[in-house]
């Protein structure tokens, strides 16, 4: 999605990814297969790059720090990435900045968990390595420690959530920022990942303004250029808490491709190139529905494209992943409409008909 936009400006995009079948491999000007968590590989890959950016947090920070020492432009800053990569350091950062966040403890290992005597319900999070809801689980007095992943952990008090919001903030190399309207995220409790989102979030103007202000404070505190997605909880008693921040283009911003004048990918390119930031305004009511792999594994095929594209304002994105797996993000559908009824119809049709299945599956 980044390359699709970057092509319009005739910039060269080089990609490093361990998977030779990565969807971007056939789109990039240059594709290098290799591990982005290996410092030597990253340094060799980035030798001739003008600007170095990331699409995932699990990149060697040591390599990025070295590139920065060499005077190269690295976005986001390695220091911000270091804070965010470790959910423990990230939570400490929020606390130090006086940003509201769910109360937490840092715990080293299972032995430490065993001695948590409180009867309260918690959320347990791996400090490093989690992704797409993996490395996060509900945790309480009845949780069997054998079902728990390894530490170190952040143990967070469970929050009574009314709504989950995300706010995209873009910060330029000069420190100017623009912010998008908050989106509301609706989760699939089974897969623990976003089922769909709607923009703008259906909250009061006051809550929307507070969410934007909080997200901007997070990014100001990080003091780094880049695109940041700040996830927030709106609690049942009306408070906003910062949950976590992604220092990159994010699933909660995919609707911006069609729904906003300038998409999150366009903004990221503007940051890389040190160009003026783009217009974040929404063109209508938008929803983005993740197309998640149905049961089974194999070469993917999409069902329901006719039904979805038949509706006005709908767009399909298929990421070109070589294999579909149960619960894997394979693509998404965006709708941009002028009424909630149109948005609801696109949501309903996509949920019923839009399925990514292994090619071998029979329809009936
Ligand atoms: N303290 C909490 N109280 C209640 N629910 C929580 C709490 N922490 C997390 N959750 C629920 O679990 C979900 C996933 O947690 P979190 O966002 O911290 O990690 P993650 O989703 O694995 O990271 P990523 O956004 O990369 O997928 C949240 O969106 C929320 O629904
Ligand atoms: Mg999250």
Provide an overview of this structure.
The structure is a single chain. This protein has eleven helices and 19 strands. The chain is an alpha+beta fold. The protein has three domains: 74 residues, Rossmann fold (3-Layer(aba) Sandwich), CATH 3.40.50.20; 55 residues, Dna Ligase, domain 1 (2-Layer Sandwich); 198 residues, ATP-grasp fold, B domain (D-amino Acid Aminotransferase, Chain A, domain 1, 2-Layer Sandwich). The strands form five sheets. Strands 9, 10, 11, 12, 13, 14, 15, 17 and 18 form a nine-stranded antiparallel β-sheet that branches. Strands 5-8-6-7 form a four-stranded antiparallel β-sheet. A two-stranded parallel sheet has the order 1-2. A hairpin with a 4-residue loop joins strand 13 and strand 14. The longest helix is centred in the middle third of the chain and has 18 residues. The chain starts with a helix and ends in a 6-residue tail after the last strand. The mean pLDDT is 95. The chain binds adenosine-5'-triphosphate (ATP) and magnesium ion. Adenosine-5'-triphosphate binds next to strand 6, strand 9 and strand 14.
């Amino acid at each position: 999605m980044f390359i699709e936009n970057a092509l319009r400006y005739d910039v060269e995009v080089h990609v490093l990814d361990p998977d030779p079948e990565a969807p971007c491999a056939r789109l990039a000007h240059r594709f290098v297969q290799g591990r982005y968590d290996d410092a030597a590989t990253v340094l060799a890959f980035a030798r001739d790059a003008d600007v170095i950016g990331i699409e995932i947090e699990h990149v060697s920070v040591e390599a990025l720090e070295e590139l920065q020492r060499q005077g190269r432009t690295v976005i986001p800053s390695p220091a911000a990435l270091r804070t965010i990569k470790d959910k423990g350091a990230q939570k400490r950062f929020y606390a130090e900045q006086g940003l509201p966040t769910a109360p937490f403890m840092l715990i080293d290992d299972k032995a430490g968990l065993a001695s948590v005597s409180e009867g309260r319900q918690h959320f347990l999070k791996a400090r490093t390595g989690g992704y797409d809801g993996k490395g996060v689980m509900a945790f309480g007095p009845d949780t069997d420690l054998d079902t728990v992943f390894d530490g170190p952990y952040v143990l967070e008090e469970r929050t009574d959530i009314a709504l989950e919001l995300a706010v995209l903030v873009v910060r330029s190399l000069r420190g100017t920022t623009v912010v998008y309207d908050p989106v509301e995220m609706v989760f699939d409790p089974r897969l623990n990942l976003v089922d769909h989102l709607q923009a703008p979030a259906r909250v009061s103007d006051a809550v929307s303004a507070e969410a934007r202000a909080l997200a901007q404070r997070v990014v100001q505190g990080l003091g780094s250029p880049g695109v940041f997605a700040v996830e927030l909880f709106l609690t049942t008693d009306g408070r906003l808490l910062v949950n976590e921040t992604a220092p990159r283009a994010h699933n909660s911003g995919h609707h911006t491709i069609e729904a906003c004048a300038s998409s999150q990918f366009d903004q990221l390119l503007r940051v890389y190139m040190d160009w003026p930031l783009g217009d974040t305004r929404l063109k209508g009511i938008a929803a983005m529905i993740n197309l998640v792999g149905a049961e089974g594994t194999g070469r993917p095929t999409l069902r329901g494209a006719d039904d979805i594209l038949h509706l006005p304002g709908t767009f399909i994105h298929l990421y070109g992943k070589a294999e579909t797996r149960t619960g894997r993000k394979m693509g998404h559908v965006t709708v941009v409409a002028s009424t909630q009824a149109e948005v609801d119809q696109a949501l309903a049709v996509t949920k019923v008909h839009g399925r990514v299945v292994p090619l071998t599956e029979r329809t009936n």
